[in-house]
Amino acid sequence: MNKITNHMPTAQLQALDAAHHMHPFSTQNDFATRGARVITSARGVFLRDSEGQEILDAMAGLWCVNVGYGREELVEAAARQMRELPYYNTFFMTTHIPAIALAAKLAELAPGDLNHVFFAGSGSEANDTNIRMVRTYWAEKGQPERNVIIARWNGYHGSSMGSGSLGGMVGIHSQGGLPIPDILHIGQPHWWAEGGEMSPEEFGLMRARELEEKILEVGPERVGAFIAEPVQGAGGVIIPPDSYWPEIQRIVDKYGILLIADEVICGFGRTGNWFGSQTLDIRPHIMTIAKGLSSGYQPIGGSIVCDEVAGVLAACEFNHGYTYSGHPVAAAVALENLRILEEERIVETVHDETAPYLKQKFESLADHPMVGEARIVGMMGSIALTPDKAARAKFKADAGTVGYITRERCFANNLIMRHVYDRMIVSPPLVISKSEIDLLIQRAWQSLDEAMAQVK
Ligand code: PLP
């Protein structure tokens, strides 16, 4: 076989891809009929494909390339670390400098007494860690029956057996025997779709109180933790009503259950602060991290754990870990990524300048005849597509169709936006400039026009 390079014709690359590469969250046969777009390089907020097209990546990859593409410092950090120590584990009374330095840095950045880090290779692995950590914590405290973890429908926490169970995605639960036992779900604070005649604030309170109802139904002595994303990401960027999180916090405090904030998307500046927990004013015992931790340049995730939980675990042997927990190259890159975020004041710039600018522009999409609401926090936002704004109506076509058409129009117009059913999402690199934001909005508007013409 010829060497596969980006000099190969696109059609040939696509044929090989369809024949041999099984894609995540995809219908594999689509790749044979249509061919995937082959992404060959990237700089800043732009991707380049094998046909030489420049695409504005308004999703920062999968919500992760926070510092943008093409950062030489991260390349150098990886190369340096590979020369020095490409791999070693931290299992059997050994450690290494990148893991020490990254854990200490995260303890400094994380709020409250979240001072301890257990590393994983991804967000899914980190949430699997959380399940085992919470249950081990309660068992060590002499309450092994507290193994129920409550999560939310339409939340997303990964796609392994454990993290996919924590998530409330019906499509994931329908394959492979999920959820695992003792993971229970309550409703999501998605006012636009589910709020009916209630005000957002009433609805937020109602949904938060489902947590208390579930705790009482199961028995408070059996509930170990509640897990949620500060702002649901993959569920459609669902920004909860203001009443929601204070009530959740009251309930977890009242029953003494652990709160796990899944910061895999919200962390590292995405919501305009270092962590979504700060933006939403919540006090988790554990935060799940990944994605923006390394800006996606290396696969790394982890759990940042409070003094109390880490203290209890410290006295027992916690029989858990991954070959790549605290991988030195990934840790070195993550550390350099945090240095860039800090020294270039990227989170502050998002908070003070670019996010307010994006908010103003993004919310103007609500003037489009097919857009019901446009909501954004920091650099994550979504619009609801609707045939009738006042009624908050859904399109009649199969779920996802109008969103899918709009996504395809965006793609054709060299803009990457993701769709979740009939919600369109943006989550651009945090370094996006004001003129790039203008381009994003212009391409989004044009794509909405084209999609509307196709739907009507
Ligand atoms: N948690 C949240 C909130 C996520 O959005 C994701 C991925 O999108 C995950 C966990 C899983 O992370 P990974 O894909 O790295 O396993």
UniProtKB/TrEMBL annotation:
Keywords: Aminotransferase, Pyridoxal phosphate, Transferase. The keyword Transferase applies. PANTHER family: AMINOTRANSFERASE, AMINOTRANSFERASE CLASS-III. It comes from Pseudooceanicola pacificus. GO terms for molecular function: pyridoxal phosphate binding; transaminase activity. InterPro entries: Aminotrans_3 (IPR005814), Aminotrans_3_PPA_site (IPR049704), PyrdxlP-dep_Trfase (IPR015424), PyrdxlP-dep_Trfase_major (IPR015421), PyrdxlP-dep_Trfase_small (IPR015422). This is Aminotransferase class III-fold pyridoxal phosphate-dependent enzyme. Belongs to the class-III pyridoxal-phosphate-dependent aminotransferase family. Pfam families: Aminotran_3. Its cofactor is pyridoxal 5'-phosphate.
